[in-house]
Amino acid sequence: MHHHLAATPETVLWGHIDPAASPVLHIASGDSVTIETLSGGPRNLPAPETGCHALPAHRDVIARCRPHLGPHMLTGPIFIRDAAPGDRLLVEIETIELAQDFGWNAIEPGAGILPDLADEYESLTVPLDRSRRQARLPWGPVVDLAPFFGILAVVPDASGGCVTSVVPGPFGGNMDNRYCRAGARIALPVFCEGALFLAGDGHALQGDGEICDTALETALNGRLRFHLEKGTAPEAPEILCDNRIITMDFDEDLDKAATTAARRMVDWLTRNTPLSAGEAYRHCSLLADLRVTQMVNRRKGAHCVLDLGSLSPAA
Known about the structure:
The protein is mainly beta. 12% of the residues lie in helices and 37% in strands.
């Protein structure tokens, strides 16, 4: 069955991920959902002289809702029937569409990894050519857009209560991993009954690291399909994209995040291939890439990427 979930004041959580939030949609494993998402607060709306247009739904949410704990507008939560703690929720991103004609990027004092480069908060509006999936940056270059969801999440364990949308964790959240794009399959561990899935923080373009604290932020609509595997929860989100497996971790200490992301790749190989731990360790050193996901979400992110084709025997 296919469902459509619009972004409205009744279906958006602004700035927080709440295990106590009431589901706005109930679905079954195997169902797909077109999810509308929004991006930005009042100071990120385009000025009239830009020729860009904010979505009516976006203005409605800003007028009727208030942020709590964080800045991101998240659509959901979606209740997946029969999902229980210890299960694996597989989220297949079938399509992603740009939902509006602009993106925005903000810098501000104290934010990003070079916090002294901004004298005041400044939100830059960038028109998007949705038909070509391109944008001309104000300083000249025309760039190809590569949209992805910065936030894909289930709710964390209810014992922790409501949490900010800013900080990622084993539940996913603000991962800002650009492999969360069309064609990807994201595996999330389930912590609460129904999983309670949310999506948001659309990005039209971002480099690894998200250096200035924001990407080219925008509203996205995605068609996502959900599958449930009983009792096989991963330790943390895993991504399969373009025949690559991506393991991740998040920690205030980037060294710890990188070490754990690499360890999870070695563990993945020993679980899913005939390789011994030593062989997997060597294979990762020769053929995997260990990358910085983002540096700006309090808990830094690292991800390890391995092309599964590297495991194929010689012809």
